[in-house]
């Protein structure tokens, strides 16, 4: 078996640069694989992008093993080069399991009751309970009384900070609907807490602000103008904390820049998401305020991600590892049928492909809901040690089941009924020989699982590079800022679990 490779560190700027350089060097040769779209799997013969020996080895593996591969799992009989590839990925990806960091040590977390937790699923409740505890500790170190919740959504984080931790909270979101929901929920929660509080106790309710934070300058200006009620008639400059739970795309980056630029913002707690929505300076040729890259070292490395790689960074190895065999096989089947449908469009309706339509989105939300229910049931079952796992033999049998002609014809019949090509404005499916196309691609269907697994394994490393770019941006601010990258959520329940926590340093401020 291949020897495990080194682990990297990001405790200092030089160490972070070394880690990022290693990632950039490793990823460059695999750019074609990361840029590939699975919908073109058959059309572009994408399996040829992968080492033939690797594909021949992995096509014999069970679905269970393929789902573990993105998490760094290897078998000792695999080709040495494949083992080295997977182990190198594992060494380059940031650790996602919660660690014993001083910030999390003896952390006080409010237990959320049914009233304030109304509307939260188990994932959101898990995130809010932990993150509010972290924010409270960071704010307490500076004596900060005001939190700015950036990208507040429906106000779950803001309301817990206000009602449970008694902070003044300003909730910023671009959606008027979200602001209305936040205000409505806050009034209901206020009535509940008012009934429990002493008559003279003043309840703090989050203030909602609806605006598009399109730049760090706008967020900085807003933060500078904030004056808490209890400081309005005082001459004391209030300390602010910027917080964001899964602030999408460039919003997380604007938070970092505003933290640096606004003197009154003393601390930052940011958990980003939606890397696919990031603007990329070198790729899209826009201003220097792009969402990636933002550190000087990353700009010098000239590694261009592009939309496909940023999409890939959103993959979750932990969640795939915990999929059931049934759902995994269903996902691979969906990829196969969608790729075959791409062949049909290429052959019979090439003009449709030129318009780049969004195909296959119907039902995706339902699949995600089902996926989340399965994950949550797994977590509950694991806690009681009663979850029955499928055996390897079952996995192999299921993975090797061929799709027969009757199944294909049934799928075609279903497609005829719903007329998907009709929705695309290109006639009905009866005009195309879908069965003939399916017979042509059927021998290659078993390669989709291995291809997908190898490509997905690169996702955590791409995300690590994006996160390190943000951390390094803060570390490059000389000694005026201290920043850390810490996993704070369960990565299975909340895949985007890496928090960037930063504080401005002075003689009296505690260290992270």
UniProtKB/TrEMBL annotation:
Top-level lineage group: Eukaryota
Gene3D superfamilies: Vaccinia Virus protein VP39
Domain Methyltransferase: 123-280
Pfam families reported for this sequence: Methyltransf_32
Protein name, UniProt field: Protein RRNAD1
Species of the source: Ananas comosus
Taxonomy of the source species: Eukaryota, Viridiplantae, Streptophyta, Embryophyta, Tracheophyta
